[in-house]
Amino acid sequence: SDGGEQDLVSVAFDASGDELRARIEYEIALVDLDGEGRTRAAIPGIAPDHYLARRYAAYVALSKTAYDDAIAASEAAVAAARDMEEKIDAMLDLIYANFLAGRWTEARHHGLAALALVEETQGDRAAGSVLFTLGYLAADSGHWARANDVIARLRRFYQHAGDARRGREVDLIAAHVALG
Question: Is the pTM here over 0.90, yes or no?
């Protein structure tokens, strides 16, 4: 980030608390992360064991295809989460890191745990995303009955939500089942 951008951030910091400062620094670090080595070793003003620092470490590891490190950082972020929203976000990172690493069983396990948390908080949109991932994983591993159950649940959910675009995306899982 350049000096002008940093001045804007400083003004925002003066009007905010430490948590907003940490969030802004985290967002700037994510924008700077481009997968070509332009990463920060640490985020200024955020302790290395802070939830946001651990999530950032997961994204840095993913950008370098260091999946074991990404999974470890995501697990640490889940443990460091201070509320349900943070825990769900970190669990989505954990699912994604396992998915990219080709660890379908682990991704499915974490997906089911995340789905339970999301449903507990009435997070319908997030639940739909997690359920979609679980449906894909079920189809990919040949669990046809489970995949068909997820397809039916997703179709009902997206029809009820009036989200035709996402409803059409369910056809991707259905095609995977049909071709399986």
Answer: no
